[in-house]
Design a protein that fits this description.
This protein has 581 residues and is α/β, with parallel strands linked by helices. Helix content is 50%, strand content 8%. It has a domain of 239 residues.
Length: 581
């Protein structure tokens, strides 16, 4: 023991002295027993990764494991397959890094000709040179041309730098997921950070945007809640622009009529409460409860996630359509309501005529009903709460105007009401033209919406529309055979990068994953631009990527989407990161 203590405090050649003492001590020993810790993947890791790959989400693995362990993990979770050519970069000098990158690019050009997928394995020592300013772009280009990328023996700082490399140089959204304190820099560097609460502590969960208990919950977080919230927020923003333009543009049109004299067509109370009460609750219910498809369908058909990658629900075109619809709605509401009273012969039973305040009340009623009905048209999953808030917001307006018009100017000392509005609504309700205008203006304003939505459903449907129609058709649609020949062209993939993690083979939650750009196209039926008829579009005819790209573990069978017309995908949109599966 004295020799060991002397060797442990030596200032020169400490390692050699400790090894010599160990050789002296560790001999003529009797083996009493041995203990071991089983190290394996969490439940559902392989299936989750395969489903994310089907959703066109590209993944990298950033792990602290040694190279051999990282490669074995890659095969275990379907990141690597036997059909792939594994390209390794393990260098110790800057000159070797530059030469190996050139050799890698040449090798990738040759494998493209043969069509064999390539996987890239990079060590932490190599990353220290590849992440330098003069080589980082070449390294990124080589990585994005590989099907899978595994970075092993990387430090927390290198995880962060790799994440920022993709985040800053590719037009993608990055997501990092990990379970340990060494994953915190990577989680904070990405656009979205997900932490796993596991046996390695709570640091990753505390530093993340979202915390989950196991890696497999990432599938539901992205494919289900991600899609729902994307559509909810998109519609929330677009609808607010629509309903505000529908209301405010009417006031601008009235300013043209009165020569910008300052006269208002809507009362101050109407303007104040329009967004606060009369049109707010329906969109709140939509933003909380809307579901374009049920959760089990979104999980069954992971490729539905591609609709969000195309940004179809929130594009400049869609924004322009909603803003233009708001202006058109305002024009219809203003001129049709005004023209309803142009004759000047409308009188109530009490003998009162219609003035500008009555016309403004009629116009405001028409607008509130119109914007509420349009939101109902856009809703895909009606519940009793949708109906309650939609009908309730319209009824709230009528209740308000009845009460508001029952007060005389002198009845509320703290709130002055104009005498023009006293007993106004009971008088307006006695005019048949008031109710006729309410119905006709809304039919005229909403009819183009119905026509456009019907045309889109027939000739340019979304993937969720195809799935919804197939599900409604029932078993008959899934049992029939397609009359059109269909062959699914191979997916054009520039990067499906997945990486593993140190504790990948363990039950403890260890996961890091990094998602990179996508370059893929949906197959199409040649010569067809219409939504295929449901009886001729069996659900079995759904796409699956090439076996070299994704291997679905046994017991897992994600659904595939019915063929629809071809739409090219934009430049890379989503990327995730990770280490520790």
């Amino acid at each position: 023991m004295a020799k060991f203590t002397e060797a442990s405090v030596a200032l020169v050649e400490r390692e050699e002295k400790l090894m010599a003492v160990a050789e002296f001590i560790e001999k003529d020993l009797t083996l009493i027993g041995a203990t071991a810790i089983e190290d394996k993947l969490q439940v559902g890791v392989g299936e989750t990764i395969s489903h994310l790959a089907l959703a066109n989400i590209k993944l990298w693995v950033l792990t602290g494991d040694k190279k051999e362990t990282a490669i074995n993990i890659g095969f275990a979770c379907a990141v690597l397959t036997q059909q792939m050519f594994i390209l390794e970069i393990d260098i110790q000098t800057h000159e070797e890094a530059s030469s190996q990158l050139r050799a890698a690019r040449n090798g990738l050009d040759q494998t493209k000709i043969s069509g064999k997928p390539v996987a890239l394995v990079v060590t932490g020592a190599a990353l220290s040179f590849l992440l330098e300013p003069d080589l980082i772009m070449d390294f990124l280009a080589v990585s994005c041309e590989c099907v899978s990328v595994i970075c092993c023996r990387v430090s927390p700082l290198q995880k962060r730098l790799v994440t920022k490399m993709v985040k800053d140089n590719k037009k993608v959204i990055t997501l990092s997921i990990g379970d340990g304190a060494n994953d915190v820099p990577m989680i904070q560097a990405a656009h979205i950070g997900v932490g796993i609460r596991g046996l390695e502590g709570q640091q990753a969960a505390a530093a993340s945007d979202y915390a989950i208990a196991q890696f497999r919950y990432l599938e539901q977080l992205i494919l289900v809640h991600g899609q729902w919230n994307y559509r909810r927020v998109s519609m929330l923003i677009l609808y607010f622009f629509y309903k505000c333009l529908s209301f405010s543009f009417c006031m601008w049109l009235f300013c043209l009529s009165n020569g910008f004299s300052g006269q208002k067509i809507f009362d101050d109370a109407y303007q104040t409460l329009y967004n606060v009460f009369f049109t707010s609750t329906p969109i709140m219910a939509y933003g909380i409860l809307e579901r374009n498809l049920d959760a089990h369908l979104l999980l069954r058909y992971p490729r539905l996630y591609i609709e969000g990658q195309r940004n179809r629900s929130f594009s400049w075109l869609r924004f322009t359509v909603f803003a233009g619809s708001g202006i058109v709605t305002a024009i219809i509401m203003y001129f049709m309501t005004m023209s309803s009273y142009f004759s000047g012969t409308h009188t109530s039973p009490a003998g009162y005529g219609v003035d500008i305040f009555g016309i403004g009340t009629n116009m405001n009623t028409n607008i509130i009903v119109c914007v509420t009905l349009l939101l109902a048209i856009e809703t895909r999953s009606f519940t009793w709460m949708h109906i309650f808030f939609s009908v309730g917001s319209v009824l709230l307006w009528f209740i308000f105007i009845i009460i508001y018009c029952s007060f005389t100017p002198q009845s509320m000392s703290s709130f002055y009401t104009y005498s023009y509005y006293y007993y106004l609504f009971p008088e307006m309700g006695a005019y048949p033209v008031f109710w006729l205008s309410l119905g006709v203006t809304n039919v005229v304003a909403l009819m183009p919406v119905f026509i456009i939505k019907w045309w889109l459903l027939q000739y340019d449907p979304e993937l969720c529309d195809v799935v919804r129609a197939s599900e409604k058709a029932g078993p008959a649609s899934t049992a029939s055979t397609s009359t059109q020949p269909f062959t699914s062209p191979p997916l054009s993939v520039a990067a499906v990068q997945i990486a593993a993690t140190p504790a990948q083979m363990s039950q403890r939650p260890t996961t890091e994953m990094k998602v990179v750009d996508h370059v893929a196209e949906l197959p199409s039926i040649p010569g067809s631009t219409e939504l295929p008829s449901i009886p001729n579009t069996p659900i079995e005819k759904l796409y699956s990527p090439p076996p070299s790209l994704v291997r679905v573990p046994s017991g897992s069978s994600p659904g595939k989407l019915p063929p629809i017309n071809n739409r090219p995908l934009p430049s890379p949109i989503f990327r995730a990161e990770g280490d520790g599966l």
